[in-house]
Amino acid sequence: MASFSFVDALGLIAGALTTVSFVPQVVKTLRTGHTRDISLVMWLLFCTGVALWTIYGVLIAAWPIVLTNVPTLGLAGTILVVKLSNRGKE
Amino acid sequence: MASFSFVDALGLIAGALTTVSFVPQVVKTLRTGHTRDISLVMWLLFCTGVALWTIYGVLIAAWPIVLTNVPTLGLAGTILVVKLSNRGKE
Asked: Are the beta carbons of A18 and B62 separated by less than 8 Å?
């Protein structure tokens, strides 16, 4: 059984917050379809960075980093896809 | 002198990307002043989470986490402040 410390819990809470934070943005973006105030460059760089964070978390065996960055990538990727699909329309 | 590994470098690149990603969003937000397509709840949760990531990074002595989350908090906090100042106007 894996050990579980206060520090792990803190990392998990931190990751839960930064991951869950994208849910209202995804809901808003999918509902309105509007992404004019959202920066394309931000979401391109952010998704790339989150993918690298995941690899980093695996390499240092910090599982809160891995567990939270994988769903973040899915959520942020959704926003990026909507933004990309709006190119030339906004 | 602190040791520096490939893994540290990867974490630093990951962090640099996720941190720098907020710069174009801050520029866009400050230039236009428009935050209608941006979710208030996202940025509230995100800023709280980034603050906790910083503490987590200190506790596990993963300095790439600390070094990259501190400026992220400043950038994301700027977007949050503009969004909050636009409440009731958009």
From this structure: no
pLDDT (tens, 9 = 90+) of chain B, 90 residues, equals 456 789 989 988 998 999 999 999 999 999 999 999 999 999 999 999 999 999 999 999 988 889 889 999 999 999 999 999 999 888
In-domain check, residue A1: no
For every residue of B47-87, DSSP letters joined together read HHHHHHHHHHHHHTT-HHHHHHHHHHHHHHHHHHHHHHHTT
- The predicted complex's ipTM stands at 0.83
Instruction: Give residue A87's region: left, alpha or beta (phi > 0; psi -120 to 50).
Output: beta
Is A57 within the bounds of a domain?
yes
Supply the range of the domain harboring residue A75: 6-85
> Number of folded domains in chain B?
1
Residue B90 lies inside a defined structural domain of this protein: no
Does residue A34 fall inside a structural domain? yes
Q: Which residue has the tokens 């397509």?
A: B37
Residue B53: its chain A contacts at CB < 8 A? 11, 14-15, 18
Confidence band, pLDDT 50/70/90 cuts, at residue A2: low
Cβ pair B50:A18 closer than 8 A: yes
Please give the Cα distance from A69 to A57 (Å, whole number).
9
Q: What is the CATH number of the domain that holds B62?
A: 1.20.1280.290
